[in-house]
Every structure is written in structure tokens, then in C-alpha cells.
Amino acid sequence: METDSMDTRLTNLCVDDRSIRLDCTSEWLRTHRNRLSVCGIHLATPEEVAHGGFPEHAIVPDAPIPLATEHLEAIMQFVAAPETPAGLCLGFGRLPCSDRLVRDAAEEAAQLDFLPHHGSRYALGPHSGRLVDVLTARPGTRTTTVADPRIERYSESIRTRRVGMHYDNAWTSGGEGERYARSVRVASADRRIIHNMGPGTRSIVVALNMSCLHLSDRVSPGNGEDIPTSKNLRDFLVEHPDEASRIVCLVWTIEVGELVVLPAGIAMHDGSMEGHRDTSRALVFAGKFPRRAFSDM
Questions:
Q1: β-pairing, 191-199 with 280-287?
Q2: How many Å separate Cα 52 from the centre of its chain?
Q3: Residue 149 three-state SS
Q4: Which of 144, 155, 157, 242 could form a disulfide with 271 if both were Cys (CB 3.0 to 4.6 A apart)?
Q5: Are the C-beta atoms of residues 57 and 28 closer than 8 Å to each other?
Q6: Which of these, 148, 141, 101, lies nearest to 120 by C-alpha position?
Q7: How many CA atoms lie within 13 A of 20 on its CB side?
Q8: DSSP bridge partners of 195
Q9: Nearest to 268 by CA among 294, 243, 239
Q10: pLDDT (tens digit per residue) in 193-205
């Protein structure tokens, strides 16, 4: 994406009660701005479909652009207010647990019969989380989420390797996950911890202004039972390319030993290894974590 196009997007960027918010202070974000970039998105090109492993119309993030000083305020407006519900918030921090717990969870996820999203529940400081998986990402890849046949029974079936940016819609037999209707989703859906075990850094790409709540209001206005899928999102952006041209994504670098808490069922997102030189393994837990659950701010 050309810089002037991103300048226009940032100038026109507005926050509302459906936007993804940043669970930090403005001062903290300014201090860590060197780890912040922005990007737009595009639908997969024929070359990306043929050679990049993406399905047709996959949502692919553009190359990240460092955030210029004059546009920092455009992102600052997304810092969460005290009354913002946790379900809309992207959180930052570290896991308050032992190295042994991390090893035990990683070993469980490595078992041949492990089913993603159905792992054991672990104590994470004063909170607890259900083990989702351990995700390994190679350096240089634009997105990290790949199709997994183990989860097709409660996820979208994709015949290609790369999924592209998406909403998560997992659901377990115990009634845990993200598949809550619009009317209760912000309050009840899981958020996911993505803890970077290294050895390299990795990024999370999150659309600030195209949450599943925005999509519901466009495709099924007034329907509190609507549960939009990633396919619904792709179809909408194919039909409304002007909407795709307005999307702004935050690209955040997760250092080794750090985490983000992601509203994965509400935020359009994916991981990215673009610009990172070493492989990264991420330990993923799900749970109804309160705001700033793992923050030292």
C-alpha cells in the first residue's frame, strides 16, 4: 500500500462502540510506539491464490507501515475508556505463571490425540484458561493461520493452506468459545491469550474498524442473533470494495515472553511473521479474562 493511501485512511479513521479498543494507557502506547505499525488489507490476488496458498477472496494484510508521528493521535483514540467492555479490548502483558506450566501446556498440545480448543484448563495467576493450541510460525510469512483438518467440524473448511484474516468461531462441547449471538457476544465470548515462546518475535494484525459487530450491522441490521463468519466477511468485502479500502489494521510486535489478549471472535485478525527473522512458537489459551488481567501498567 502506498503511504498516501494510508494517510487518507488514518485521517478518516473514527472510533465507535463496535471498534476494537487498546487496553492500555495513552502514555504506555506512546512509550511503546516503536513496536507499532499500521496496514490496510486487500483481497488475495491471483498470484497469492496460485502461489501463496490463499483461498480465493482471502483477506490479506498489506505490508506494515511504521506509524508516523503526525498520525499517532489517530490510533490514540482507540485506547479503551474505563467503561469499555473487555470483549472489545486487545490487551498486553506477560503470563504470571511458571516456566513449568508453559512446558506442560506445550507438551499437552504436542500429543497426537490433542484436539485444538479442547485442552486442559490451567491456572494463570489469579485467572484460568483453556489450552487452545501451540502455533508455530516461520519467518517471513505475511499471515500465520493455516487450515487445520482437526477443527473442521467446528470451523470453516478451507482447502488451501493459508486462511487469511478472519474471525474465530470455535465452540466446544462444554459450551465455551466464540459462537455467541451478537446480543451477548461482547460480554460472554472468550478472549485468547497469545503468548510468544520464541525464539523469535512475531506480530499480531488486528483490524480496528471492521469487527464482527460492524459486519453484523451491515449484513443483518437489528438481528441480535447474528453470528457472522469469515466467509460472510469475505463476501461482504467482495461486494463492497469501498469498505475494504477504509480498513485500518494495527500491527503489534509481540516480544519473546510477552502476550496479547485478543478478542478473536470479534476482531478481524491474523498473526504475521513479516519482517521477523526467526521462527516463533505461540502458546494459546482461551477464557473470559477481565481487562488488564496480565498487565503491569
A1: antiparallel
A2: 21
A3: helix
A4: 144
A5: no
A6: 101
A7: 27
A8: 259, 283
A9: 243
A10: 999 999 999 999 9
